[in-house]
Specification:
- This protein folds into 4 domains: about 120 residues, Rossmann fold (3-Layer(aba) Sandwich), CATH 3.40.50.12160; about 110 residues, Transcription Regulator spoIIAA (2-Layer Sandwich), CATH 3.30.750.210; about 120 residues, Transcription Regulator spoIIAA (2-Layer Sandwich); about 50 residues, OB fold (Dihydrolipoamide Acetyltransferase, E2P) (Beta Barrel), CATH 2.40.50.140.
- It is an alpha/beta fold and about 425 residues long.
- It has a 5-stranded parallel sheet, sandwiched between helices. It has a 5-stranded mixed β-barrel with strand order 16-17-18-20-19.
- The two termini are about 40 Å apart.
- It is built from 13 helices and 20 strands.
- The chain binds 5'-deoxyadenosine (5AD) and iron/sulfur cluster (SF4).
- 5'-deoxyadenosine binds next to β14.
Length: about 425
């Protein structure tokens, strides 16, 4: 059986997709390069913003043709849109064979295999593929769901409350991924620094993972700013593999809006956290998320967000126009910032962010940085910048790069002799 996985949405969604594919491969399924080549499609969807959900719905609509070419084909729609719309989705799109909401993300592979077997009343023929994931950088989900109550966010309702995976399971999976060729692990959770197993916390987990043979780099995302403490910063600074990069979503620079959003910190507290991080971890690069046009946001409050971005100096930021999500507390508020104003604010904040990105890239020009080759001529720096070079390096190797120039989002340079065996 050949399965093609398509992911829309965040890294968590992408990790669910690749994990499902990996588990099904263990059961004898193979990966199909394209839908045309596939007996089954596994689509993970995102509903965090209305735009993402509309994209998912239109893709599902277009897959009607794929399915019509051979009714034996099997279409699975999983993820947050599946959770939110459930059987409404099946009704609207009768060509969908199976709807799996994101609360079932831990058992997608079992459920797909089961449903497929029941429908075809046969088990899939074994087509053995080289086991496991094959990329240099792999995500590892350490917790699912979210117990936060940010007023704009649909995640707690579609993914359910926080559920932490036990440390031993995470360590075993990390070892297996490293044995299969992974060099960098990105630990994933909606509020990843809320991870706990008894008295073990994320800082402790980083230290345990740090000593695993074969591991070159370790990252995690996304931490909640209100839960960042010196213990975590000390682990970031002290672990050989922990990268000097942190995604710290701020959302707004206005205390009134942060209150309405239920973020649990003020502007001052957030900036203080970023300052302490920078003091603890030399050379750390920060990125963030911003929402513009939250209900009742005034021009002056938006200006506070612009000011915060200038103070924070993130190397990148993901900026979004607020969209009301059904069932969230914020959806009760009037969505009163006009679309054109949201658009203008988004453009304004993106312009500020782009200046910081350009500056951060320019500052790297002339320096030597360590890159991890994800392909022979592409990789990332420890600080998370994309980098390209000409003379090929084996994927999975660390190599020193002399940065000679930068494009809008990428460093360019020359490789010096790879320094790790
Ligand atoms: N509207 C706009 N942006 C949102 N995000 C989450 N919910 C919404 C919403 N309703 C953004 C936040 C979050 C990122 C994953 O998506 O910035 O950090
Ligand atoms: Fe990921 Fe959130 Fe989208 Fe779900 S709703 S796929 S958790 S971004």
């Amino acid at each position: 059986m050949k399965l093609h996985a398509i992911t829309l949405g965040c890294q968590m969604s992408a990790a669910d997709g690749s994990e499902t594919l990996a588990r099904l491969r263990e059961r004898g399924w193979a990966a199909a390069e394209s839908p045309e080549d596939a007996d089954a499609i596994f689509l993970t969807t995102c509903s965090v913003r209305d735009h993402a959900e509309q994209r998912a719905l239109s893709l599902i609509g277009r897959l009607r043709e794929w399915k019509a070419k051979d009714p034996k084909r099997f279409l699975v729609v999983a993820g947050c849109v599946a959770e939110r719309l459930g059987q409404r989705l099946a009704k609207r799109f009768p060509h969908v064979d199976l709807v799996l909401g994101s609360k079932k993300a831990g058992s997608y592979a079992d459920l797909v295999a089961e449903a497929f077997a029941v429908r075809n009343s046969e088990s899939p023929k074994a087509i053995r593929n080289p086991a496991g994931g094959d990329s240099v950088v792999q995500s590892l989900t350490i917790m699912r769901g979210c117990s936060c109550a940010c007023s704009y966010c649909i995640v707690p309702s579609v993914r359910g409350p926080e559920l932490c995976r036990p440390a031993d399971e995470i360590l075993a999976e990390a070892r297996a991924r490293l044995a299969g060729g992974a060099r960098e692990l990105i630990l994933l959770g909606q509020r990843v620094n809320a991870w706990r197993d008894g008295d073990r916390d994320l800082a402790g987990l980083l230290r345990e993972l740090d000593s695993l043979p074969g591991l070159a780099r370790l990252r995690f995302m996304s931490p909640h700013p209100a839960l960042c403490d010196e213990r975590l910063f000390a682990a970031l600074a002290g672990c050989r593999t922990a990268c000097e990069w942190l995604h710290l979503p701020v959302q707004s620079g206005s205390d009134r809006l942060l209150g309405l959003m239920g973020r649990g910190y003020t502007r001052g507290q957030f900036l203080d956290t970023a300052r302490r991080l920078r003091a603890a971890v030399r050379g750390v690069v920060v990125s963030t998320d911003i929402i513009v046009g939250f209900p009742s946001e005034t021009e002056a409050e938006f200006a506070e967000t612009l000011g915060l971005v200038s103070e924070l100096r993130p190397a990148t930021a993901f900026c979004f126009k607020y969209s009301g999500r059904e069932g969230t507390p914020a959806a009760e508020l009037a969505d009163d910032v006009p679309a054109a104003v949201k658009e203008a604010r988004l453009a304004a904040v993106n312009a500020v962010v782009d200046r910081h990105t350009a500056q951060a890239l320019q500052e790297a020009v002339g320096s030597m940085v360590e890159v991890l080759a994800e392909t022979p001529t592409f990789g990332r720096t420890r600080t998370g910048f994309k980098a390209r070079w000409k003379s090929p390096v084996a994927a999975g190797r660390l190599a020193p790069l002399r940065v000679t120039a930068a494009t809008r989002r990428t460093l360019l340079g020359d490789i010096h002799e790879p320094h790790d065996p």
